[in-house]
């Protein structure tokens, strides 16, 4: 824990070595932060000046970790620019995950390794994000949705759906599409031959 942080007494909180809870951020009961977790680091916010240099936007919000959350090693949960970033009760977050400023991670979410949530992403209850998922930000993944590994999500995801791919779409359609993908060169040759055969002489 950082030396400047004063976390009020909680029930059975475990903060492993090199985990950091920054100023004004809070953690609930029965929270586990594995090694190297950073809670409340600055969100990634910059504005471009007229000379194309970057001006840092003050990140004045906080991060709130609710009860029964576990966050694995080397994961960052940024503080909000304004307002709060919140990890809700029972969520489990794997190693090497980036949760951007102003995000909400819902109750009992599972977020697997190397996933990144851009700012202001909202995950409702019981969402599962598999490994290396990218969320573009300012969108909502609704309750019970499953996002398969290495998906790139740039739109809201309806409740209780399964999506895959980049850009991500319905997982069943994606499976059919990816099966056909390796045949595309042969299909293209066939289409060209058909086109030549049907051209007027």
Short synopsis of the structure:
Helix content is 12%, strand content 29%.
CATH superfamily: Hexapeptide repeat proteins
Largest β-sheet summary? 9 strands, mixed
Radius of gyration, in Å, reads: 22 Å
Overall outline: elongated
What's the tally of helices?
Answer: 2
Beta-strand percentage? Answer: 25-35%
CATH topology: UDP N-Acetylglucosamine Acyltransferase, domain 1
Commentary on this structure:
- The strands form 4 sheets. The protein has a 9-stranded mixed beta sheet with strand order 1-4-9-12-15-18-21-23-24, covered by helices on one side.
- The model has no long low-confidence stretch (mean pLDDT 94).
- The chain is of the alpha/beta class and 201 residues long.
- It has helices spanning 171-181, 184-197, and strands spanning 14-15, 20-21, 26-27, 32-33, 38-41, 46-48, 54-56, 62-65, 70-71, 76-78, 84-87, 92-93, 98-99, 104-105, 110-111, 116-117, 122-123, 128-129, 134-135, 140-141, 146-147, 152-153, 162-164, 169-170.
- The longest helix is centred in the last third of the chain and has 14 residues, at 184-197.
- It has a single domain (14-171), classed as UDP N-Acetylglucosamine Acyltransferase, domain 1 (3 Solenoid).
From the structure above, extract its key features.
single chain, 201 residues, alpha/beta, UDP N-Acetylglucosamine Acyltransferase, domain 1, nine-stranded mixed beta sheet, seven-stranded parallel beta sheet, 2 helices
């Amino acid at each position: 824990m950082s030396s400047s942080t004063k976390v009020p007494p909680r029930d059975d909180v475990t903060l492993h070595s090199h985990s950091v809870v920054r100023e004004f951020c809070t953690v609930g009961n029965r929270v586990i932060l594995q090694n190297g977790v950073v809670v409340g680091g600055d969100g990634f916010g910059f504005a471009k000046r007229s000379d194309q240099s970057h001006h840092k936007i003050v990140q004045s919000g906080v991060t709130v970790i609710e009860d029964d959350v576990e966050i694995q090693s080397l994961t960052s949960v940024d503080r909000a620019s304004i307002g709060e970033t919140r990890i809700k009760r029972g969520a489990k977050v794997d190693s090497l995950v980036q949760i951007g400023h102003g995000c909400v991670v819902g109750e009992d979410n599972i977020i697997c390794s190397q996933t990144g949530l851009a700012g202001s992403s909202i995950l409702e209850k019981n969402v599962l994000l598999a490994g290396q998922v990218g969320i573009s930000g300012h969108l909502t993944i609704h309750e019970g949705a499953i996002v398969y590994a290495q998906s790139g999500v740039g739109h809201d995801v309806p409740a209780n759906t399964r999506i895959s791919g980049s850009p991500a779409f319905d997982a069943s359609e994606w499976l059919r599409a990816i099966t056909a993908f390796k045949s595309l060169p042969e299909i293209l040759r066939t289409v060209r031959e058909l086109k030549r055969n049907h051209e007027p002489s």
